[in-house]
Design a protein that fits this description.
The protein is of the alpha/beta class. It is built from 6 helices and 5 strands, in the order αββααββαβαα. The protein is globular and about 40 Å long.
Length: about 200
């Protein structure tokens, strides 16, 4: 589905509103309800605050952003203390894509969404895990990937990147499911618990 560039922002904001209203899953909380939504943003997910160029040529899709406790602790902001974020910056540098950690900008302090940066970041699961004993490492459920799949597909369709990079098997599985593509290896089927 091709979206004309001038319509991207409107389509994106409509999708964000739909994400904010979604209550489809059990075991995760939408950022719009955590602490009455004070840390939620007008982005599809918290990671898009950091790299959210709707015209990006490369999209990075991770599994999920974490749990409610982490989301509250960092106030819904991608942080330089995240091992994932620090490692991703290094990996992207090796690929020739140079970005800075969200709160280590040349001007100092945190900046609003970089709509002109080279990338778009999102997650296959947009809500925060309720955690429990496992916290951010709590296992994910298949229905979370399925329920967020239409948001993931719409995000890809709006941005229209030339390449989508998946961080892990579950992010890959989320994209495959979002596009109703079943070409999973036996080992990936086992990881994703797909019949």
């Amino acid at each position: 589905m091709k979206i004309v560039s001038q319509d991207k922002t409107a389509a994106y904001l409509d999708m964000v509103k739909a994400r904010q209203a979604c209550r489809a899953c059990i075991g995760v909380l939408n950022p719009s309800v955590i602490e009455d939504g004070i840390f939620d943003h007008d982005e599809i997910g918290a990671w898009s605050l950091w790299q959210g160029n709707l015209n990006a040529e490369v999209m990075v899709v991770a599994q999920d952003w974490g749990d409610v406790a982490w989301f509250n602790r960092v106030k819904g902001i991608p942080t330089s203390t995240s091992t994932t974020n620090r490692t991703l910056v290094k990996l992207l540098q090796h690929a020739g894509l140079h970005i800075e950690l969200y709160d280590q900008t040349p001007t100092g302090g945190r900046t609003p969404n970089s709509k002109s940066g080279p990338l778009f970041f999102t997650n296959a699961i947009l809500c925060m895990k309720e955690g429990g004993a496992y916290g951010a490492a709590a296992p994910i459920k298949r229905e979370w990937l399925h329920n967020c799949g239409h948001f993931l597909r719409r995000t890809i369709d709006i941005v229209q990147p030339k390449a989508v990079v998946c961080l892990g098997a579950k992010a890959y599985g989320g994209i495959m499911a979002a596009y109703n593509m079943i070409c999973l290896s036996q080992s990936l089927r086992k990881i994703l618990h797909v019949d």
